[in-house]
Design goal:
Helices cover 4% and strands 18% of the residues. The protein is mainly beta and 179 residues long. It is globular.
Length: 179
Amino acid sequence: MGGIDHVVIVNNTLYNNNTKNQGAEFQIQYHSGNASGNIFENNIVYAGSQNVWIYSYVKSTSGYPAPPATLNWNLYYSTAGYVKGTSIILAGISNYKTYAAYQTATGEDANSPNANPLFDNINSTPPNLDIESNSPAIDSGSTSLTCSVGWCNGFSIYGSTDFAGNPRINGSEINIGAY
């Protein structure tokens, strides 16, 4: 039996990772409960044709109560839209009628929109996952986590630059995603 403890995943862009229908864009395996301190924040999750955004199939128990991670300030999207029973499976539960129903029932992703992130060009090879200037990911993230939740070498846990080397904060808030 395995698990994860105090894993912090911030400012990533997850794009079409489930091409063989063997998981999800973001998958939590094994036992992990709300006391484990796992955090998933400021990430873009763009699901491909399999349309599985979050996959945490292990049901919660008294030793590992839900949720398996604290999720917030993420942006979720797929061309198929949210689909009950497919898009989100959290702690073995997948019967949320709508994305809003998932947010209400779990208390997770309260500040996480379900919207097209507006990538520069997903049809290029490789896809250009930088976001357009009118993306809903612009200035939509959070910088509330401190170094006490994960490794940051005395600086911000979010880092000072994005994947392309640009300042992480260009406007009033941090952008969601890797760029």
